[in-house]
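Action item from last week, closing it out:
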Amino acid sequence: MSDTTKTPIARRALLAGAATGLTAAVGALAWRRLDIGGRFFNPLKLDDFVLPPVAGLAGANGAPAPGLSARDFSATPRLVVLFASWCPPCREEHPLLMRLAMETRAPIYAALYRDRPDAAREFLSKHGNPFAAIGDDSRGHFARLVGARGVPASLVVAPGPRIALRIDGQLDDAKIRDVIRPALS
């Protein structure tokens, strides 16, 4: 065989290898960026999940604050807030949640999203704890389960349980008045 017949084959093999490598790199990037593994292999289901309590966190009565589970959503619509102490919008909406907790009978639940328990304890002891229960979502499984796009995120979970409403992003007075309160009624 002459050198002229080997060259096109070698070029095609090189191009095929480059295309395969590029496809693999893009696939790996998408897998990580879109958290496809977490979405496919999420161990939680809304009708059957348990988030453990945040270690060392006490409730308003001084007893250890309970975690969050599907059992908390069996009676009436409940507000669930995904938050983190490191999240600036979460810090900004916290006074609104404190006020809502005092003004309404509906308990507010929370999932602590990828945060350190000691940081959450410090934040809540300094600013108040409006939550009836807080589950530790250190791996973000609950956030993926409910389709949250980050923190803060607020959900109204109706009996069943089913997500009746999801708000991604920070709450304000208008959202609480016009959206959250009617959904909890």
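Closing note: Strands lie at 50-51, 68-69, 78-83, 108-113, 131-137, 153-158, 162-168.
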